[in-house]
Amino acid sequence: MPFLDLPDCVNARDLGGTPLANGGSVRANALLRSDNHDLLTEVGIAAVRALGVRRIIDLRHGWEAREFPSPFADDEVYVNLPLLGVYPGFEPTAPDDYRPEVDHAPERVAAAFIALAEAPPGPVLVHCHGGRDRTGILVALALAIAGASPDDIVADYALTEGTDPETMLDLLDHFDDAHGGVAEYLAGAGVTDAHFEAVRRRISR
Questions:
Q1: Among candidates 32, 31, 40, 109, which has minimal Cα distance to 72?
Q2: E strands along 35-120, which residues?
Q3: Which of 51, 60, 194, 196 could form a disulfide with 64 if both were Cys (CB 3.0 to 4.6 A apart)?
Q4: Within 13 Å, how many C-alpha atoms sit on residue 69's CB side?
Q5: For residue 162, is it within any domain?
Q6: Structural domain for 163, as ranges
Q7: What is the band of 93 on the pLDDT scale with cuts at 50, 70, 90?
């Protein structure tokens, strides 16, 4: 999983090489992840464009996207799809526990997954503010649907600064225990078999 050289952007890497079931792996330059892009230098912006990115999925809240605007906000490749809703007791800086968040806003999580499935052919770059939590959730879902094991999903998550692997393990267990699995959770929120297959085709080799 090579880290990407995007000046003034951290936690930027290519998911290529992540092991998948039956001896496969994620294709290089298919699914990329990073933190937000408002601090990218001109060199960094050019580096993102050089990757040939066909869709940038910004998972931040609308106010974050307005306060820290993406340099790609006016590009046709860019979409802002807030992954998580705001609910009573919501604290953006609360201790890590993604379980209440995915349960509160399954339709938002599904919309982000569908955006990945329906993106134009080519690399997709997913990001939030720090490139850790919301990005970690969507990437974990995509990897799970493509056939990555929980251990390999957690291994990718742990590469991000400031993460506790137990947080992702707890989330994956929660999908199984409370929803019957990742696919069942997403299907219950409106994701179709065609979307699942599109994500598998997009990132698997």
A1: 40
A2: 55-58, 78-80
A3: 60
A4: 6
A5: yes
A6: 13-84+96-203
A7: very low
